[in-house]
Design a protein that fits this description.
By secondary structure, the protein is an alpha/beta fold. It is globular, with a radius of gyration of 18 Å. Helices cover 33% and strands 31% of the residues.
């Protein structure tokens, strides 16, 4: 008998992956956590039936949410990571010797424990001496962190359920205050393809653009995410994601990546026409309201 895991991207679209074995299943205080093994994508982590990562393509997400801001900001020493309990973002950050402290705020300790056991390649740097793990609500945590960080990475689940508060104007304002005067915030912005996801992306971008003086959206192609097309937000108090990118400095680090390159970095900010129009629509509406 064949076993299949299916995730609904919309009520009319479903993505299915054949399973070899269901490795882990537990209901935490926040969601249903499942890890299963598959012939095509390796081990897969799902929360409440939604794919969070697969061994086969997680490097795309983790590299793009990490190396883009790290190649722009010249002096990142203190980093706050929100979510990312699987450890993939921390793993990428830990490759930078210049970083002195990584605070990881994760609401669910069960996610970390499951990933330590079943996804050790992701969780391999969670015990780095620079990493400090806090099991807390990120809104409460960062309210106490004015001007403390050079970089904030918001690696949350989608804007529904436990992570809904990480997509509000209040949250982005608190992140702004937690950053130093030249700080950068990046976050996952979901997919712009299906209507419901696209509307949430527009709402998020509008709030970020009204909070930060520099706000841009960039893209990556991730096979197991909705429509295989994913967006990230880049928000900064000072640095432009392309004009202030230091290709020479980043290349001199000698980091070997599977997806990210400086050339890809630049190309990721050149968006298709339909997406440019969607972003311009909310940016223009925001300006009109400010003028009124």
């Amino acid at each position: 008998m064949e076993l299949w895991f299916s995730e609904f991207h919309t009520p009319d679209v479903k993505h299915s992956i054949r399973m070899k074995k269901h490795l882990y299943s537990k209901k935490s205080d926040f969601w249903q956590i499942d890890i299963f093994d598959t012939p095509e994508f390796g081990k897969v982590l799902a929360l409440d039936g939604n794919v969070m990562l697969t061994e086969r393509d997680e490097f795309i997400y983790d590299e793009m949410i990490t190396h883009v801001p790290m190649s722009v900001h010249p002096y990142v020493k203190d980093v706050l990571v929100i979510g990312a309990g699987d450890g993939g973002v921390v793993r990428e950050l830990a490759r930078y010797d210049s970083i002195e402290k990584i605070d990881l705020v994760e609401m669910d300790p069960q996610v970390l424990e499951a990933c330590r056991t079943f996804l050790p390649e992701n969780a391999c740097r969670l015990d780095d001496e620079r990493v400090h793990i806090f099991y807390d609500n990120a809104l409460r945590f960062i309210r106490r962190s004015t001007g403390r960080y050079d970089l904030i990475i918001v690696d949350s689940t989608d804007p529904f359920g436990p992570s809904e508060g990480y997509f509000t104007k209040e949250f982005y304002g608190i992140c702004y205050n937690a950053l130093r005067e030249d700080g950068i915030m990046v976050n996952q912005q979901g997919s712009p393809f299906y209507q419901h996801d696209a509307l949430e992306m527009q709402r998020s971008h509008k709030k970020i653009a009204s909070t930060f003086p520099i706000s841009r959206v960039y893209q990556a192609h991730i096979p197991t995410y909705a429509a295989g097309y994913w967006l990230f937000g880049f928000a900064s108090k000072k640095y432009h994601p392309i004009d202030d990118m230091d290709t020479t400095r980043w290349k001199e680090l000698g980091l070997v990546t599977q997806y990210y390159t400086p050339k890809l970095h630049i190309g990721a900010f050149y968006l298709p026409a339909f997406l440019e129009r969607m972003l311009e629509e909310v940016e223009e509406n925001g300006k009109e309201k400010e003028e009124c």
